């Protein structure tokens, strides 16, 4: 962290912020608080300008080519699962999915659109690589193959692709932000909507939640959400197998079994 001290000065207190990459830090000096990250995507500047992430304070390029970004570190809390039912989440997601500025920036960064065929092909290859033999996964893949052409959707948008409740920050001033954009893609909005509704919102409330988001609950949307939730759940089984997380793998396999029953897939 010496390089951070060189940028900020010795009077700043710097501590790791956790995370998978180890490239994020908190920095404090008197009443000033910053969240620092190394080699964040240029996408962060547009997210900040749109008010979707905490404000970007500065960006600095190091001699070695690394880019350091500093954002306001805001006091607040992660959302609880029950908070995901509320209007602010639906409205913030609508803002993201309808933003032309975000879409234009991801296109400039040469992000290709994600389509069901590529997801399915990658999933099948991953299952082969990990040598997973499971009746539930076989049934899931058969369903995904059968319906892959039916879930095509032309109006691709910017999707976050990980709307877990702990990626939402509610500040003490009641401002809602969505953080951790490393996995963002141009895709069918159902790739965000499906996991959110399936994991956090009772099915009888889907229509109400979607009305706050600004979309009707059509049969087509139901099919697309089911397809993406199923694909995601299978991918989590594969991911935990690859990581050797046996306990977590069994938990997700139980979730997959329950999802197959819910979708009436035999």
Automatic annotation (TrEMBL):
<dbReference type="InterPro" id="IPR052077">
    <property type="entry name" value="CcrZ_PhaseVar_Mediator"/>
</dbReference>
<dbReference type="InterPro" id="IPR002575">
    <property type="entry name" value="Aminoglycoside_PTrfase"/>
</dbReference>
<dbReference type="InterPro" id="IPR011009">
    <property type="entry name" value="Kinase-like_dom_sf"/>
</dbReference>
<feature type="domain" description="Aminoglycoside phosphotransferase">
    <location>
        <begin position="17"/>
        <end position="218"/>
    </location>
</feature>
<protein>
    <recommendedName>
        <fullName>Aminoglycoside phosphotransferase domain-containing protein</fullName>
    </recommendedName>
</protein>
<dbReference type="Pfam" id="PF01636">
    <property type="entry name" value="APH"/>
</dbReference>
